[in-house]
Design brief:
This protein is mostly beta strands and 280 residues long. The protein starts with a strand and ends in a 15-residue tail after the last strand. The chain is built from no helices and 24 strands.
Length: 280
């Protein structure tokens, strides 16, 4: 992999290729910043609270999650508009991993500020409603979707378990989450994840310097070693979604590439992330 952007992030996360802007966006949770780069020019915005996850609404607007709320952020005006509170009454939690789903919704996990056991939850916002999907999570991660199979996935990193839940035609769960993959034997801590057009899941593994590819049949089909110790989340992007991007973390590390944003030719059936549909 090569360096896409050399800005060191303490906790780089939520890489998102914007197909209407032809640029990559990502956040540094701990530095409370949002970045955008087309590979040459970079811009950034700073927030009052840690922003952990983003998805695109249209060319100028994103949906984002911080420690208090979901909000719409206008890139051109650098302005925000609240959508709804997100555990705003809990000063000891913040948002973590999140992603748009293929039905126009947005999933977002929460966690304790010190990763307290069971302090977090998973939510879905859709059609103006925020609904809790799961609770008792510690570090929710790996949120991604298989539209063809009407499945959602998410992990609780510290448990080494990737969960799956079936979805209805509007993208709401129809059953309780079940264990899809357990990586306890491999000792893998699953962080951010994406799916490709074939339904494979590509997961960044914290402290393992690699991505794993998991088939729709829950088999680890491949491993890709990367030059950072703590990869945090992959993303497809570029022309025809043919490139793979990767954010990473530098917190407590001093490696040359730790915390940088990387890219490579994907050689995978990549796809762009869907937009979030705002409630009318």
């Amino acid at each position: 992999m090569q360096v896409y952007d050399d800005t060191p992030c303490q906790l780089g996360e939520s890489p998102l290729w914007h197909p209407e802007r032809d640029e990559l966006l990502w956040v540094d949770i701990l530095d409370q910043r949002l970045f955008a780069s087309n590979g040459n020019d970079q811009r950034s915005w700073r927030f009052e609270r840690p922003v952990s996850a983003i998805a695109w609404v249209d060319r100028e607007r994103l949906i984002a999650a911080d420690s208090n709320e979901l909000f719409v952020f206008d890139l051109a005006r650098a302005s925000r508009k609240s959508i709804c509170g997100l555990e705003a009454d809990k000063v000891s939690t913040r948002s973590n991993d999140g992603r748009a789903d293929p039905w126009g919704g947005f999933w977002i996990g929460t966690m304790g500020l010190q990763a307290e056991v069971g302090a977090g939850a998973m939510y879905r916002w859709y059609g103006g409603e925020l609904r809790q999907i799961a609770r008792g999570l510690t570090v929710p991660n790996a949120t991604c979707f298989d539209e063809d199979r009407h499945r959602a996935y998410f992990a609780d990193t510290v448990t080494h378990r990737l969960m799956t839940v079936p979805m209805d035609e509007d993208g709401w769960p129809t059953a309780q989450p079940e264990v899809f993959l357990d990586t306890s034997n491999e000792g893998l801590l699953m962080d951010g994840a994406i799916t490709d057009r074939a339904g494979n899941i590509h997961i960044a593994c914290w402290d393992a310097s690699k991505l794993i590819t998991v088939s729709p049949e829950a088999e680890i089909a491949a491993e890709l070693f990367v030059p950072v110790q703590r990869p945090t989340c992959p993303a497809f992007g570029g022309p025809d979604a043919a490139r793979l991007y990767l954010t990473s973390a530098a917190v407590d590390l001093d490696g040359e590439l730790d915390g940088l944003t990387l890219s490579a030719t994907a050689n995978l059936p990549g796809k762009f992330e869907p937009r979030v549909v705002l409630a009318s």
